[in-house]
Specification:
Helix content: 25-40%
CATH class: Alpha Beta
Number of helices: 14
Shape: globular
Number of strands: 16
Strand order of the largest sheet: 1-2-3-4-5-7-13-14
Radius of gyration: 21 Å
Structural class: alpha/beta
CATH topology: TIM Barrel
């Protein structure tokens, strides 16, 4: 029977804006995430157009990886990480995104991080842009609506590709780029701040602007991939999709059709452009039905063909259902909600837990593209409690991860070419959707709380030693 490949990349995943902190240190500029206040599961975080004195912005300190990176990477190494997914903060390298020369202090920080990884034999997997574009680009161009952002992004890629030769091999152009196909992606993914937008959940949506911005990201991604392939052939370039598996609630053909259409727009549209180098056939009707007209320049479609990725990565947390029945019970989730699946349990944050859905999803993706896949986000957000003896017994997290890894093994037996697994938030960090610390994912607990207090000390959870055994046994001891 097939098993995980011997060079399987076990590790964990993070994002600069959710764990680095040091938001204005050593020349770093303000990013879009730096303008988001704290929030909770019930109270949405706000988006401010300037920094408000006395307001808590969780990204400003986060868990301060900037000053704790040696300690944290040593803990990752103790678990046996083969790979560490992190992102580079664009505004550390180009503070406004519009400079012509990079910030040396920002470049030097990531040199130190990558050198520390190399010391332990950990391969960095770098997301170039992970929900934190320079806020100055939002102010000047309304984010990716402005075509000028393509050149600014490519200049940023040129700087980091050149600087980190020999230190980074695996790159992802944009995090969860398909967030731009959904209203919540306006500010989160595209840096679009339409007039009237005040909080993170209720963003003012103009679909035509959103898909225009998404098109500009497609072109920027393709140019970055083409640049890497031509100048740095040792680099492996990947895409990253927030895969939102959607089932029909019933076998009613209306439900089945609704599910197919949801999967097309949520999942396949963006990855088809990345992997196949062209907009899919169904996009034309979707744009026509929704009065979306995308402005393209003459060579745009050629550029997309020239910049196809080498491997496909995705996040997987949950599945959802859709139905034509308007009276069905709704439930929340990652980027989109849906209808409650009566066969599944949900997390404390209402995300439906579906390990078998991961096997199904891996088979769907691999069957469509037949290029190597990697699960680069997967995990359970939960409120972890410290026992009187100081231990953190997160068996619920162990069970969640175990069940998903078991289904990954089944997918490998099915013939899927799976190259790695990096559970989300391998160390506790700020939630992207709610702006809170209470929703913890990590194997490592960080003493930081939703009011900004905490001494930032690190301690291992029960899942730390469990995951260490998983890695050491290459997924055989679960």
């Amino acid at each position: 029977m097939r098993q995980f490949r011997k060079d399987f990349l076990w590790g964990g995943a993070t994002a600069a804006n959710q764990f680095e902190g040091a938001w204005n240190v050593d020349g770093k500029g303000a990013s879009t995430s730096d303008m988001c206040t704290g929030g909770s599961h019930t109270v949405p975080k706000r988006i401010t157009r300037s920094i408000e004195e006395g307001t808590f912005y969780p990204s400003h300190e986060a868990i301060d990886f900037y000053h704790h990176y040696k300690e944290d990477i040593a803990l990752f190494a103790e678990m046996g990480f083969k790979v560490f997914r992190l992102s580079i903060a664009w505004t550390r390298i180009f503070p406004t995104g519009m400079e012509t020369e990079p910030n040396e202090e920002g470049l030097a920080f990531y040199d130190r991080v990558f050198d520390e990884c190399k010391k332990y034999g950990i391969e960095p997997l770098v997301t170039i842009s992970h929900y934190e574009m320079p806020f100055a680009l939002t102010e000047k161009y309304n984010g990716w609506v402005g075509r000028e952002c393509i050149d600014h992004y490519v200049r940023y890629c040129e700087a980091i590709f050149k600087r980190y030769q020999g230190k980074v091999k695996y790159w992802l152009t944009f995090n969860e780029i398909n967030a731009g196909a959904m209203p919540l992606g306006n500010f989160l993914s595209l840096g679009i701040l339409n007039e009237g937008t005040t909080d993170f959940v209720h963003q003012v949506d103009i679909p035509e602007l959103r898909f225009q911005g998404l098109h500009h990201q497609f072109v920027a991604s393709a140019k970055a991939v083409k640049l890497a392939h031509e100048k740095y052939p040792e680099y492996k370039m990947g895409c990253m999709i927030a895969y939102m598996t959607t089932y029909p609630l019933t076998c009613n053909p209306d439900d089945v059709m609704k599910a197919q259409q949801a999967n097309q727009i949520s999942n396949w549209l963006c990855s088809d452009v990345h992997v196949r180098g062209a907009y899919p056939s169904f996009a034309e009707r979707y744009f026509e039905d929704n009065n979306i007209r995308i402005k393209m320049e003459d060579r745009d479609l050629e550029i997309l063909k020239e910049g196809c990725v080498d491997f496909y990565t995705f996040s997987y947390y949950m599945t959802t259902c859709v139905t034509a029945n308007e009276d069905a019970d709704n439930i929340g989730g990652n980027l989109i909600g849906g209808v409650k699946n009566p066969y599944l349990k949900a997390s404390d944050w209402g995300w439906q837990i579906d390990p078998k859905g991961l096997r199904y999803t891996l088979n769907e993706i691999y069957g469509r593209y037949e290029i190597p896949l990697m699960v680069v986000e997967n995990g359970l957000g939960a409120s972890d409690e410290i026992s009187e003896d100081g231990s953190i017994n997160d068996d619920y997290r162990i069970n969640y991860l175990r069940e998903h890894i078991e289904e990954m093994k089944e997918a490998v037996k099915d013939g899927v070419d799976l190259m790695g697994y990096t559970p989300w938030g391998c160390i506790d960090l700020v939630s992207a959707s709610t702006g809170e610390m209470k929703k913890r994912y990590g194997f490592i607990y960080v003493d930081k709380y939703d009011d900004g207090t905490g001494d930032l000390s690190r301690r291992k959870k029960k899942s730390f030693d469990w995951y260490k055994k998983v890695i050491a046994s290459n997924g055989e001891e679960l």
